[in-house]
Amino acid sequence: MKLEDRFFRLYRRLRLVSYRRLLRRTEKLSAADAFAVDVIYLLEHPTLSQFAGTMGISQPSATYRVNELVAKGAVEKLPSPRDRRECRLQVGPQYIQQTLEAPGKFTRLLQQLTRHFSPEQLDTTATVLDAFITALEQEEDMTQ
Description:
Layout: H1 3-24, H2 31-43, H3 48-55, H4 59-71, E1 75-79, E2 87-91, H5 93-100, H6 105-116, H7 119-143
Helix pairs in contact: 2-3, 3-4
């Protein structure tokens, strides 16, 4: 299997695992709500306009969606200390623990890797992953 195929396989598998976890543990949220919360989480405290831009929706639509998520307890609005008109969005702590960063499986998989591979092999893998992530981030920055 080519390296490119391996990366695509890993990417698809991580997405699928993430979606399963997200949708199984969000009884109060629709799939669209769960996806919106996940985007807010991944953006790491975005402004409302950053959220709207990432989702490709208008500012009023983003405001409506966020207000619904606040009412359901999945998202919190944090006022900006510099500009009272601006707020940052944050995923609620209970939601993070239950869905997005549920402990267990990922940690166990990483522990298995440390038992099967030498520290040098793991360092090389980490270096390759860091380079891939940096290239991906730079590519994303150029398209924005």
